[in-house]
Amino acid sequence: MEKRRLVLTFPASLVGEPITYKLVKDYDIVLNILKAQVTPEEEGKLVVDLQGTESNLKNAITYLKNLGVTVQPLKKDVRMNKDKCTHCTVCVTVCPTKALTVDRKTMNVQFIPEKCIACELCIPACPYNAMEILI
Ligand code: SF4
Ligand code: SF4
């Protein structure tokens, strides 16, 4: 069994489609949703682990792309710009892995890169653009 950790971005037209059901039923994929942000009428985003045979994974990813889903591997290049961060804690609530936490002594928000899966959910959540993707 192979494994892929991916970010799936759905256009509004696909929100509500039984895509995860089809991945399991039609492509024999073991699906683990790490994080979901899906709002009707808007874009949806899933961070998932997909497990299956190499050919099933390939076919499943082709199916997703043909539907119009953007499929991206997780990147490893997220950082917190400490000069911009106001420690408002908004990002803490969206981070699925606790890579962003509040230090209870200082009440400052800390970024722990080792826990970051680079799902990018904190990027649009931060009102001060303090979470950045390094290119
Ligand atoms: S949302 Fe942005 S400003 Fe607020 S704590 Fe997180 S990184 Fe800092
Ligand atoms: S990209 Fe942001 S939200 Fe995602 S795991 Fe890393 S710190 Fe958390």
SSE class: alpha+beta
Report the principal-axis shape: elongated
According to CATH, the homologous superfamily of the largest domain is ACT domain
Strand-residue proportion: 25-35%
Radius of gyration: 16 Å
**Count of individual helical segments:** 4
Major sheet: 4 strands, antiparallel
- The tally of domains stands at 2
Total strand count, please?
8
Weakly predicted, low-confidence segments = none
- Stated plainly, the CATH topology of the largest domain is called Alpha-Beta Plaits
The first-to-last residue Cα distance is 31 Å
Helical residues, percent: 10-25%
In the CATH scheme, the class of the largest domain would be: Alpha Beta
Nearest-integer average pLDDT: 90
Small-molecule binders: iron/sulfur cluster
Provide structural commentary.
This protein is an alpha+beta fold. It folds into 2 domains: 2-73, Alpha-Beta Plaits (2-Layer Sandwich), CATH 3.30.70.260; 78-133, 2-Layer Sandwich (Alpha-Beta Plaits). It is 24% helix and 32% strand. The protein contains 4 helices and 8 strands. The protein has helices spanning 19-27, 54-67, 90-94, 122-125, and strands at residues 2-10, 30-38, 44-52, 70-73, 78-80, 100-102, 109-111, 131-133. A 4-stranded antiparallel sheet has the order 2-3-1-4. It has a two-stranded antiparallel ribbon with strand order 5-8. Strands 6-7 form a two-stranded antiparallel sheet. A hairpin with a 5-residue loop joins strand 2 and strand 3 (44-52). The two termini are 31 Å apart. The model has no long low-confidence stretch (mean pLDDT 90). Bound molecules: iron/sulfur cluster (2 copies). The site of one iron/sulfur cluster (SF4) has 15 residues, from loops. Residues 80, 85-91, 109, 126, 128, 130-131 line the site of one iron/sulfur cluster (SF4).
